[in-house]
Amino acid sequence: MRGVRSVMSSQGVRPRLRIVGVVILAAWIGLAALFGQLKPIKNGCTMTYMYPTYIPISVTDGATPPGRYGLYLYHEGWRKIDFKEHISKLSGVPVLFIPGNAGSYKQVRSVAAESDRAFQGGPFERTFYQEASLFRGEGKDTESVEYDLSSQYSNRLDWFAVDLEGEHSAMDGRILEEHTEYVVYAIHRILDQYKESHDTREREGAAASSNLPRNVILVGHSMGGFVARAAAVHPRLRKSAVQTILTLSSPHQSPPLALQPSLGHYFARVNQEWRKGYEVQTSPGGSYVSDPLLSGVVVVSIAGGYNDYQVRSKLESLDGIVPASHGFMISSTSMKNVWLSMEHQAILWCNQLVVQVSHTLLSLVDSKTGQPFSDTQKRLWILTRMLQSALAQSFNGVTPMKISNELPMLASKGSESQTSSCPMDWRDDALDRDLYIQTSTVTILAMDGRRRWLDIELLGSNGKNHFIFVTNLAPCSGVRLHLWPEKEKSNSNLPVCERVLEVTSKMVLIPAGPAPKQSEPGSQTEQAPPSAVLKLEPEDMHGFRFLTISVAPREAVSGRPPVAVSMAVGQFFNPNEGAMEVSSQSMLLSTYWAKEIFLKEDHPLAYNLSFAISLGLLPITLSLKTAGCGIKTSGLPDGETGDLDKDKLCKLRCFPPVALAWDSASGLHVFPNLYSETITIDSSPALWSSQSPEKTTVMLLVDPHCSYTASVHVSAPAMSSRFVLLYGPQIVGFSFAVILYALMRQANQWDQNLSVPPLLSAVEYNLEMPSPFLILAAIPLLSSLFFSFVMAQPIPPLTSFTMVSLICYLLANAFISVLIIVSKFVLQALALVHTTVKYRCQALERNYSFAFLRWFSILASSFVCLKAIRILKLNTTIVMTLAAVTLVTFVHPALGLFVLLASHALCCHNSMCCIMMASKRKESVDQKNEAERKTRHPSSRQESLSVDLSEKSFVETQADIFNHRHGLLILHLLAALMFVPSLAAWFQRIGTGQSFPWFADSALCVGVIFHGVLNSRPESSILRSFPSLLGHKLGPHHMYFLAGYCCFFSGLDLAPYKVFYAIAALGYISLTLKISQVNKNDLRFRTKSRIHRN
C-alpha cells in the first residue's frame, strides 16, 4: 500500500494552504447562512379565517391539455349550496387566481374570503392623511392626476382558481408553457360561463340588467404571476380579455432558479413580447397603424420584502418590462396598512395584505357598469392610491423626488385637493387659550384643546429652517396645523384669516406599534408611538410668519381615567446637525465589536444614519437604549422614583423611536417601536446589472427630550444568509468557470509534454497571486465594467461589485474543491474494494476445492465471448453516445447526461483500479527482489529495475487518463445537476402525458455529450486539431480559457443556464473537427505514442 499512497499523494489529494483557506471561508459562510435561514421569522401577520367551498366549472372539448387541469369557482360560507344554481347566478367581476410552483388552487381562499367580507362591509373609513398621487409632466407643467373613490362598492368579486395539479412550474420551461396555455383556456371559459349564466337567466325570465364582463382580472402568486403575464401576450388570447394583472411575490425579470436553458429562454421571450406590446404599431414605411397592443393592460407587482428568501425583490421588479405609465412594483414593507415583510407563502394568507388587496380590487369596479374601469390611467391611479404610501421616494429625510415626464410617483408635496382645509370646522371658541412656544421643540401630551403658536422667524433661525412634526393624533379630528402670514408685511387686501394656509393634510401616515395600556385606572402609561409625520421645507414656509398647532379638546368622562396616550412632538431643526455616516470599516468591525453612537438630549428629532455599505448586503442589528431623559432636572425627589428603572421612567416621557430605511428597488422599510431590531432592506447591491445605491440611509425619529445610546452590530448569520440568497446564481456560474480553468491548466500541461496534473492541483494553481488569479478573475470583472460603459448601461458601485464578485469566485473554488475531494475519495474507495475483491477471487480460484467458482468463471468468459457482447465492447463509445443522445432528445436531458457521467465514472474507476493493481504488483516485485538480492548476481537487480520502469510508465499513463477524465466528470456532473430540478418535475408528471423536451435543451445537451465523447482522452482530444488563426496555433487550453470567461460572464449576469452555450459550443466545434478529419482522411493527428514515452 506504500505505492498506492505515493500515487495518491502525487495526484494532489492533500489540498494545499490556498484550498484550505477558501474551503474554511465557504464553510463559515455556509454554516452562518444555514443558521440564519433556520432562525424563526416573526412577520407580524394575522391569520385569515374562512369557510371555503370550491365549485368545479365544467370543461369543454377545447381544454389544453385535456383531463389534467381544472377550474374552480370559490364560494364563501358554511351553508350548503346548489352548485348549478349558484353558477347560473354569476353576475360579479371575474377574478382568476393562478397558483405558483407546487401551489394549490385552494390557496385562493384567504383573499377570496376577505373580498366577500370587504364587499359586505364597504370601503375603508375616510382619513385625512396625505395620499399617494400620480403626477405627469415636468417642471412647471407638472400636474396631479386626481379622481374620486366611490363611497360604496357596486359589485362583488367572483373568484376563480385554476388547478394545476401542484406541478413544479419553476423548474421546467415546458410545464410553464403548458400552464400558460391552460390559463388562456380558463380565461375564455370564464367569459363564456358568464354568457351561459346570463342566457340561462334570460330563459328563466330572471335576467338582470348587469353588463357582461369583457375581461378577467388576473391574480398570480409566485410563478403564477409570470404565467398571468405570459397569458396576456399569448397569440390565442382574445382581444382585451386581460387588462389588470396583480402578482404576489412573482419573478418577472428571470426565474428564481435560472438553471434550465428553456426556462430562461421562455422568460426572455415573454419579456420581449411585453416590451414590444407597449410600442406603437407602425407600418414598414413608419406610418402609424394602431396603439400599442398592451396599451390597456396595467400590472402591479407586490413583493414580500427581505423575509421572502425564495424570490428577491430585484426579480419582482417590472423595470424594462412594463413602463411606469402602466404599472409599478411595491414591497409589502411600504404597502399602506401593511408595512410588513413576509415569507413567500405567508403573502397568501397575511390578513393585513389580503384585506388591502381585496379593497383595492373592489375599488377598481365602475359603479355605472359594474365592471372594472376601462380607463387605464384611472385604474393605475386607484392602484397607486390604495397600495402606496405618500412617504417621499427619495430618502434623504422626507424630501421631494424629482418628477420625470410621464412617470407616476408618490406625492411628496400636496396637490390642491390635499392641501385644502379640513372638512370639519373648529370654532375659535372651542380652543381654551393660546400658548406661545419660545423653544425650538414643542411637546403635546394630551388633547387639551389649546392652540400653540410658533414664530417661524424666531425659532427657525441659526439654520434651523426645517420643521418636522410627529404625532399619534389623527389629522383634522385630533390636530390641525396652519401657516399664518404677517399682516403688516402683506400687500394683500384679504383679511388675515383668509390668507391662512392649512397644511394638516400634508401629514403622512406611518405604521405605529400597539398603544400602551394603563396598568391601573388613573396611572400614567408609556408614551404612545407616533402614527404620522409631517415635514415642512423652507420653501413651504416662505412668506409666512407663524405656525400654529391646534389640538382638539376631548371632554373628560366622569368615572373614567383620563386618556394618556395622546402625543405630538414638533421641532425646528437643521438637517446637517442630525446626520452621521458609518464607514465601511466600522461596519465590518462591528461584526465582532459593536459600534456605539451617543445622541445627547435636545438632539434633532429626525436623525439620519448613513451606512457606507448597503444594508441589503450587511444587515445590522440596531439597538437604542435610553441614557437619560432629564430626570435629574425634573424636580422630582429621589423618593418618588422608587425602584423604577431609568429606562422605564424615560419611556413614560419619550415616544418610542421609529426607523425608516429606503431602497430604490424594494421601497420603504419602516420599523416602529425600535429598541432592538435587525434592519435589513431587500436591495441587490454589487450586481453587474444593479442600480441600487451602495449606501443606505436610515432615518431615526427619536424624541429630543431623551438621550440615547445607539449600538450598531452587523449580524453575521443575517449577512451570510443574504449573501447566499443574493449571489447564489453568481456562484453557480463561477463554478463552471473554475472547472473550465482547471481543464485549461491540464490541457496546457499536456501540450508542454508534461503529465496531466490532478484536478485539485490545477484549481489550486489557478488561485496563485498575482498570476493566474488576476487573469482569470480580475480581468473578466474589468471587462464587464468596460462593456457596461460602452453599452451606456448603469455601472455598479466599483468597490462592492469587485469585492463581492471576488468572494463569490473564491466560494466557487471552494465548492469545486470539495466536490473534487469527495468524488476522488469515492472513486478510490470503490477501486480499493474492487481490487481487493478481485485478488480474493483470484486466490480462491487457485484452490481446486472451489469448483463452483471455476465453473462460474468459465460461464462468464463464454458469455463475454458472444458476438453481440464483443461488438458492444469494441464500440462502447458509439453505443454510449447513441443512448445518451436518444435520452436527451426524446426523454429528458438529465437522463442522457447521466449516461455520459456513467461513462466518465467507469473510465476513472478502471484507471484507478489499474493504478492500484500496478502498485500492488510493484510491491510484490520489490519484496521478491529484496529477498533474492543477496543470493543472486547483480544482473537480477538490473532486471528488477527494468520491470520497475515499465510499471512506473504504465502508472503515469493511467494517472494522466484519470486526471483528465476526472475533470470532465466534474464538469458534466455540474451540467447534469442543473437539470435535476427539471427531472424531479418530470418524474412528478409520469403517467399524465409526457411531451418531448424543448429543442433548445436537447440541442445544448447534445453538444455537451459530444464534448465529453470526442475529448475523452488527453492524447486524442479532437480540439487539438483546430486550425491556426492568424498564424497562431489554437489548442484546447485556449478553448477552455474562452469558455471559462463565458461562464464567468454568465455568473455575473445571474443567468447560470447560459454556461451551456459555452460547453455546447466546445462540443459542436469538436464534432465539426471530427467530421472534417473523416472527410479528409487525415491521419496526421495521432498522439497515442506519448502514452509510452517513458
From TrEMBL:
Superkingdom of source: Eukaryota
Enzyme class per UniProt: hydrolase
InterPro entries membership: AB_hydrolase_fold, PGAP1-ab_dom-like
Residue ranges of every copy of the GPI inositol-deacylase PGAP1-like alpha/beta domain listed in the record: 90-363
Transmembrane regions listed in the UniProt entry: 20-38, 724-744, 773-792, 804-827, 847-865, 872-891, 968-990, 1058-1076
Keyword line: Endoplasmic reticulum, Hydrolase, Membrane, Protein transport, Transmembrane, Transmembrane helix, Transport
Region (Disordered): 926-945
EC number: 3.1.-.-
Keyword Transmembrane: yes
Subcellular location: Endoplasmic reticulum membrane
Translocase among keywords: no
Function comment: Involved in inositol deacylation of GPI-anchored proteins which plays important roles in the quality control and ER-associated degradation of GPI-anchored proteins.
Homology family: Belongs to the GPI inositol-deacylase family.
Annotated PANTHER family: GPI INOSITOL-DEACYLASE, HYDROLASES, ACTING ON ESTER BOND
Record-given protein name: GPI inositol-deacylase
Species assigned in the record: Brassica rapa subsp. trilocularis
